[in-house]
Amino acid sequence: MADVVKLAHPSWKAMPESEKQEYERQAKELKRSAPNQAGRLDCKGRPLADRVDTEAVMAKRRLEERKRVVAAWPPGIGVVQEKFLLLNIQSLCELPDGMGYMPCEIGVVEYSLQDGITREFHRFIQPGKPPLGYRYLCQSTSDNTHQIPIEGFELAEGNYHRLWLDLCKFASPNGRNFPPLYSQVTHTAMCEWCLSWLAEMAEEYNSFHVYELDGLVQDLYDHATEGPPPSMSMVASILNTSVFDYEDGSSCEYHASKEVKYCALGTIKRFCFSISDSMAQVYSLNLTPRHLPERPENKGHYTILPSDAFALDRRPMWDPPSRQRTTSQPRGAAYNPPPSYGRDQWNGVTAASTSDGNFPARDIRLHAQPSHSASSSSVPETQALRKPTTPGFVAQLSGAVVAGLGRGRGRGTLGLTPEQMRSLTATTQPQSVGGLQQKMAGMTVHTQPSGRETSD
User: Which residues contact 299 (CB under 8 A, 6 or more apart)?
Assistant: First the structure.
C-alpha cells in the first residue's frame, strides 16, 4: 500500500480540481454505505461493527408489542372484557456476570376490568443449590424479603416438567395461542430469564412472552380518555402503592403466616387491586370483592383522639441571631439562652425549664396539666387558630386525628363525605384547635380496615 501511494501521489497532485471532486464524492459515499470498522475493536476486544444499542432495540420491541395488543382490543368500553395474565416471580438473588437468577416462587392471575381476578396460579420452585460463594447473599435476600428457605423447603416443587405443564395449562387450556404475561417493567428481564430457565429445566419449548404491565396501564387509560395518558412514573406510583400491602387473603398461606408482603401471588393481586381502584371511574366499573379486597363498611380502622390528648407548640422554629450559640459556647446544659430572648412571652406559653441530661427539654407537654374536659377551654386562647380558607389544612389536621385511612372506591384518602368537609369549612369565625377536634370527633368517618388491626 505504501508503494501505491508513492506512485499515485504525483498524478493526484497534477490532477485538476474538477476531476478531484468526483473522486472525493465517490469516496464519501463509499464510507457512508459501508463503514470500514471490521478491523476496529472496543475495549473488550469485540468488533465495533457488531455493537448493538440494546436500549434502542428494547424500546422498539416494547412499542411494537403494545401496538399489537391495542390493535386487537374492541373499541370503546368493550376492552373491559379482555382478560390479562399478570406474572410475578420471586428470586433468591441475582447472580453476577449474566449468570441469571435463582427463582423460588411464581404467581400468575387472570384479570379483567369487568370481572376482576378470576383465576390464580401459585407454586414454589426448587431453585437448586446456591453457587459457591453466594450462599450468604441468598440467605440475606430471603431474610429481608420473602423468607423462603434457600434449601430443604418442603413446599418447593422439584418436578420442573410437571410445574411447566401446569403453568402452560393455566395460561392456555387448549395448548395453543399463549397470551402474553404482564410483569412490572423493573422485573420484566428477570421474569423472561426465569421462564426460559424453567422451560430448559423441564426440557420444553418456551412459548411465553413477557410484556410490560406499566405500558398496559398507560394504554388502558389512553383507550378510554382523549387526554394524554399518565406518565410512567405516575403508573409506577399507582402499582407500588402500599394501601393493599397487608390485605387478608391477598397473599399465599405461607407468606400470610410470615406476615410479609414479598409474595409472588400477593404482589400481582395488589397490582390488580391498584388497577381496579384507579380505573373504576375511567370505565365506570361495578366493583366487587374480586376487584378490591372486601372490607366491612361498619368496621373502620381509625382512632379518634380526645381534644385534650395533645397540645400544639406554637413557638417559632426560627431562632433570632441574638440567641444563636457561638462556637466558643459549649453544648448541653452549660449553654443558657440570653435573657433578651422572649419567645415564650411572644406566645404566652410557659416552656419547661427542667433538663433531662445534657440537653434542656422545652416541650410544653411536660408541664401541661391533665384535663378531663372535652371543651375547647383546655387549649390556651393564644393557641387559637383561624379557620382555614382551603380544605387542604383540614385534610392535614384530620390526618393527625384520624389515622390509618386507605384509598379505594373513590373516597380519596380522608374518608370524609363532601357534606362533612363543608361543615368543617362553613363558618368564618375563628375556632380553637380543641373546638375543631371536637367537631371532627363527632363525625362518623367511613373507611376501610387494613389487613392488620392495631390496638392501643
Answer: 449
pTM: 0.58
Is pLDDT above 70 for 88? yes
Cα dihedral: 32, 34, 37, 39 (round 10): -150
CB atoms within 10 A of CB 178: 14
Amino acid occupying residue 377: S
**What pLDDT, in 10s, does the model give residues 283-324?**
999 999 999 988 766 555 556 666 665 666 666 655 555 555
pLDDT tens per residue across span 414-432: 445 556 655 655 554 555 5
Average pLDDT, the chain: 74
Helix pair angle (391-401, 433-441), 10° resolution: 70
List helix spans (H) across 295-355: 343-347
116-125 and 156-157 beta bridge pairing: parallel
Q: Sheet containing 100-112: give its strands across.
A: 156-157, 116-125, 100-112, 84-95, 181-183, 210-212
H or E stretch at 392: helix 391-401
Alpha carbon distance 374, 154 (integer Å): 57
Q: Are 137 and 150 in contact (CB under 8 A)?
A: no
d(CA 313, CA 219): 49
Minimal CA–CA distance to 89: which of 264, 228, 301?
264
pLDDT of 452 strictly over 60: no
Coil, helix or strand at residue 71: helix
The dihedral built from the CA positions of residue 65, 239, 188 and 269, taken in this order, carries a sign that is negative
Rounded Cα distance between 346 and 361, Å, is: 19
Contact predicate 65/209, CB 8 Å:
yes
Residues 359-398: tens digit of each pLDDT: 454 444 444 455 444 444 444 444 443 344 434 333 443 3
What is the percentage of the chain residues whose pLDDT exceeds 70?
62
Cα separations in angstroms, 456 against 100, 303, 342, 403:
46, 9, 39, 12
- 373 burial (CB, 10 Å; 0-12 / 13-18 / 19+) is exposed
What is the average pLDDT across 262-267? 95
Q: How far apart are CA 445 and CA 430, in angstroms?
A: 24
Residue 176 phi, psi (nearest 5): -135, 160
